[in-house]
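debug: dumping io for the single-chain case to check the tokenizer round-trip. Nothing else runs in this session.
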Amino acid sequence: MWDTGDRSTCAVELRCRQWRIQGQVQGVGFRPFVHRLATRLGLAGTVRNDLSGVTIRAYGPPKRLDEFAVRLRQEAPALARIDRMLQTLDRPASDIPSGFHIIASSHDSTERGRVTIDAAVCQECVRELFDPADRRYRHGLINCTACGPRFTIVRDLPYDRPRTTMAGFAMCEPCAAEYKNPSNRRFHAQPTCCPKCGPRIVLTDGAGRPWIGDPFQAAARLLAADGILAMKGLGGYHLVVRADRESAVARLRRTKHRDH
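debug: decoded output
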């Protein structure tokens, strides 16, 4: 029995409720959001990904559980889209866990959920990107739970780092600390990395041989010499030339057989 804060009654019967949520709820910071909301409301329980969405089990006073369910929809992360929210359990609470936790994903569901699209860099990451004092200063792969690659890096659901192309990149201690910190916006952000522990940016020639030296300086020299770059981005490649150099644009048009 928990004290509800209402002096008219000393305590209320605790309930255990469970919800199944489907839609765009993986790769959008939904589990960290659920964790923060439940913690603010003083609820115990768990949240986890599965093949088709997210499962939440929460323990607490009925009024707080009601508020929790309403705020799940009202305050969901900007990238989230809740298509279906079904309450599957409501019973007297027993074996109440200590605190609220993100637990290992389940593979039991027979349905498959929606893979989240890639998202443009958010303003918080932009601020860090151009802050010389930040450890991700000019880090081209900067991201957090509100932005960055999702669809491009997913290999399978549930959306967890081992099922993305980031599986081979072990997080350094500072990145791991952010990933595990509920108050950090990179809490359970699967693409989390930095210049020390993430993928490296390289420049190769047409045969795949790496260029020696700084890749950005080498790319700038190539562009200045009317070169054509294929720059790998989220979901594909961009062809790059000096657009203010007529000879460079003409070369690209000839190469693509698009003279006009």
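debug: round-trip ok. Residues 3-10 have pLDDT under 50 and may be disordered.
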